[in-house]
Design brief:
The complex is a heterodimer of chains A (about 450) and B (about 200). Among the domains of chain A are: about 90-285 and about 420-430, no CATH class; about 300-345 and about 355-405, no CATH class. In chain A, strands 2-3 form a two-stranded antiparallel ribbon. Chain A is built from 21 helices and three strands. In chain A, helix 16 runs antiparallel to helix 20 and helix 18 packs across helix 20. The radius of gyration of chain A is 30 Å and the shape is globular. Chain A has about 450 residues and is mainly alpha-helical. Chain A has helices at about 1-10, 20-35, 65-90, 90-110, 115-125, 135-150, 155-160, 160-170, 180-185, 185-200, 205-210, 215-220, 225-240, 240-245, 250-260, 300-325, 330, 335-345, 355-365, 370-405, 425-430, and strands at about 135, 285-290, 415. The longest helix of chain A is centred in the last third of the chain and has 38 residues, at about 370-405. In chain B, a hairpin with a 2-residue loop joins strand 4 and strand 5 (about 120-125). The model of chain B is unreliable at about 190-200 (pLDDT under 50). Chain B is an alpha+beta fold and about 200 residues long. Chain B folds into two domains: about 1-40; about 45-195, no CATH class. Chain B is built from five helices and seven strands. Classes of the chains: A mainly alpha (about 450), B alpha+beta (about 200). The interface between A and B is large, with 78 and 83 residues. Strand 1 of chain A pairs parallel with strand 1 (about 40) of chain B.
Chain lengths: ~450, ~200
């Protein structure tokens, strides 16, 4: 109404007013297409009656003291589980401790804050100078690593809620065999590498995005994630801890650190009597059988193997790097900037097709198209580098895995594989040797 | 660890493993120190900037929570208390009544209450609000823009990476200090914009 009157008055003003009309139309259009926000078009009324204006409530989030409580709970849980594993060697104790952790970190904290996801925050802190890493995240990232270096993967045994929920359902664990274990064991490296690439390029946090159990902890999951979690839990009845063994990216770090652990759990408290009772006790295929070396390899075989390894590892590293760099455009497809640039590049869209939300938001922002393309090409360059690094890393891992299959390690006793053992202490119960027994 | 036999062999191996252990420890410590220099004692939370928001409607669907932690928030200080509220009524509404077919809000979360002629107060029932932003768009296009979308921190679970932020086409989400978790634009700022740009009286 007001606008109409204005139009009329302007028209009466004659030709002089044409620029004014254009200006006015421009203003109208800017209001229409710009972010029309915070423009006080209608003044606040002066109320005659007694009217108390309600206050705009701004409820606060979770108190920061509670975040520190989380760290304390983590320290206590780590210490408790480590004590139960290394000192008490009690399976029941570890089991009940893991239930406590599941209820606190899982169902109470709803799976967030977690050490697995913290990898991405730490990466982002290195890649993005403006991102300030909350101190609690550092503790969640570092503390399990330190405990693992001293005592093995006790974090996996009873602190991580993911491990705990999978441990609950592993009722009929089957042996997978070394070959399948090795092949599936490569997946976490791929997951870790991609997670670091996407966090470092500030694209996405894929560990959190494809976190299967958070939906369970919150009783609120998208359909896809619910199916994923259901598959993991149901397959987890027969394949113990499928996420921990064949997906968990944090497990990769723990695996490597645990190999150098100072006081890792042992199956027997004193001396192994070769009774073979523990042989089938491990649901995770993490017990290394004795390799007594009745037929030691001769020198020429060993040299040939060494030469193959020395050639193979760099070859796979370079091959992986090259493949990764060739795939950088696919990798970059996850980035929103790259996707927007691609959509803008594709000309001639059907007229009746509604434009995507991204395009209309981009138009509303008033950013020049050239800026989008510059940003996207920057992104592609980053992904080219990242593709090389990721590919090299995966190639190296593949090469080393093959090499380790070629090398025979001799051992006399049944020992937990320090890398893959979750310190769950199941095997301990099977060992007939007790600490107070006389040595055999 | 304690294998008594074959001492000479174990000693070399022990030496190497101790060395590796020490270097791993130093490595972890180094990472910890490096990371600590980039850290802050304060927490951050996710919030969206209403100035960048295009009310695309994804806040309602992208949140990990159902219903979304994003709600429409009414900055009363900016409201014009209009009878013909662009946030409350559908554009084609003929009679200004609270009949369901007139309402823009799909869940009846925006309540209209008579104050005095010709002013009406609008309040939001946050339990009903799904954060679709329809009213925000209406208020921003035809009114003062006193309705603004915000992440409500009593509901938000503060995910590591906000799933709405990932889907936001306007890039309106960012991590903000937990001490000042809201990015509402208030009357003071609105007045400033008003005097600077308003072309009509």
């Amino acid at each position: 109404m007001v606008e109409n009157r204005k139009f009329a008055s302007l028209r009466l003003g004659g030709k002089k007013s044409i620029p004014l009309v254009i200006l006015f139309l421009m203003i109208i259009f800017t209001f229409r297409y710009m972010n029309v926000y915070g423009v006080q078009r209608f003044p606040r009324p002066e109320f005659e009656s007694v009217y108390v204006q309600p206050e705009t409530l701004q409820p606060a989030g979770r108190s920061e003291i509670l975040e520190i409580v989380d760290v304390f709970v983590l320290v206590i849980a780590l210490a408790l589980v480590t004590w139960l594993v290394v000192k008490k060697r009690s399976r029941n104790g570890v089991f009940f401790a893991s239930l406590l952790s599941l209820s606190y970190f899982g169902f109470y904290r709803e799976g967030c804050i977690c050490s697995i996801g913290a990898i991405q925050n730490v990466t982002l802190a290195f890649a993005d100078g403006s991102y300030l890493l909350p101190i609690t995240v550092i503790f969640f990232f570092i503390l399990p690593l330190i405990f693992t270096l001293f005592f093995g993967r006790t974090f996996c045994a009873g602190v991580c809620p993911f491990g705990a929920i999978q441990d609950l359902v592993s009722l009929k664990p089957q042996k997978l065999g070394p070959r399948l274990n090795t092949v599936l064991g490569l997946v976490p490296y791929f997951y870790l590498g991609s997670a670091i690439v996407y966090a470092a390029t500030r694209t996405d946090f894929i560990i959190c995005r494809y976190d299967p159990f958070v939906g369970i902890f919150r009783f609120d999951a998208s359909f896809g994630m619910f199916i994923f979690a259901g598959t993991l839990l149901i397959s987890g009845i027969f394949i113990a801890r499928p996420y921990c063994r064949f997906l968990c990216p944090y497990g990769v770090l723990l695996n490597w650190i645990s190999r150098f652990s100072w006081k890792h759990i042992t199956i027997t408290p004193t001396t192994c009597i070769q009774c073979r009772l523990c042989e089938d006790s491990c649901p995770y295929d993490a017990i290394d059988m004795p390799v007594t070396g009745k037929n030691p390899e001769n020198r020429s075989t060993t040299i040939r193997k060494l030469m193959i390894i020395c050639f193979m590892v760099p070859f796979f590293t370079l091959l992986g790097g090259w493949t990764g760099s060739q795939l950088h455009e696919t990798l970059a497809g996850v980035s929103g900037k790259v996707r927007l640039a691609r959509t803008l590049l594709v000309p001639g869209k059907a007229a009746n097709e509604p434009e995507s939300l991204e395009i209309s938001a981009f138009k509303a922002s008033g950013k020049p198209v050239s800026q989008v393309f510059t940003e996207a090409s920057e992104m592609l360059k980053q992904f080219y580098m990242a593709g090389w690094i990721l590919g090299c890393f995966l190639g190296l891992v593949f090469g080393i895995t093959l090499a380790s299959r070629m090398v025979t390690t001799y051992r006399t006793d049944y020992t937990p594989n320090k890398g893959t053992c979750f310190s769950c202490t199941r095997c301990v119960d099977y060992c007939p040797v007790k600490k107070n027994d006389a040595t055999f | 660890m304690e294998e008594p036999e074959n001492n000479s062999k174990i000693n070399r191996r022990k030496f190497i493993t101790t060395g590796v252990k020490a270097s791993v420890l130093i490595g972890i410590g180094g990472v910890a120190v490096l990371v600590a220099t980039k850290s802050s004692t304060g927490q951050t939370v996710w919030q969206l900037d209403p100035a960048k928001c295009t009310q695309c409607g994804r806040c309602a669907t992208s949140c990990v929570l159902t219903p979304s932690a994003v709600k429409c928030v009414h900055v009363y200080a900016m409201c014009g208390y209009c009878d013909l509220c662009g946030g409350y009524f559908k554009p084609e509404t003929r009679t200004l009544t609270t009949a369901a077919e007139n309402q823009l809000c799909p869940t009846n979360a925006l309540k209209r209450k008579f104050v005095e002629d010709p002013f009406f107060e609008y309040t939001i029932d946050e339990d009903l609000c799904i954060g679709c932003g329809k009213c925000v768009k209406g208020c921003g296009s035809f009114g003062n823009g006193s309705l603004q979308l915000q992440v409500r921190h009593n509901r938000c679970v503060n995910c590591n990476q906000c799933s709405i932020a990932r889907n936001c086409p306007a890039d309106a989400y960012s991590r903000v200090p937990a001490g000042e978790p809201y990015l509402l634009h208030h009357i003071a700022e609105a007045k400033k914009i008003n005097t600077a740009t308003t072309p009509r009286r």
